[in-house]
Design goal:
Recoverin, domain 1; mainly alpha
């Protein structure tokens, strides 16, 4: 999936939108919602694989820096 280059402010906005409960981290459910909304047709297994790759500290949540790094690599 390709993403356009985003500014720091745009990335903050994206993160805030994904972080539905406002806890400063994104759960798999929140990530899955975003990807489905963006038209990503992959199933849970493929989305879980992407989520795990993004979660570089392996705490089961994605923080802003992890999301920013991933989006910039896409």
């Amino acid at each position: 999936m390709k993403f356009t280059v985003a500014t720091q402010d745009e990335l903050q906005e994206i993160f805030g939108r994904i972080d539905e409960d406002g806890d400063g981290n994104v759960s798999f459910i929140e990530f899955k919602s975003l990807m489905l909304e963006m038209g990503d047709p992959r199933g849970d297994g493929a989305l879980r694989t992407s989520f795990t790759r993004i979660d570089t500290d392996h705490n089961g949540r994605i923080d802003f820096d992890e999301l920013r790094t991933w989006l910039r690599q896409q």
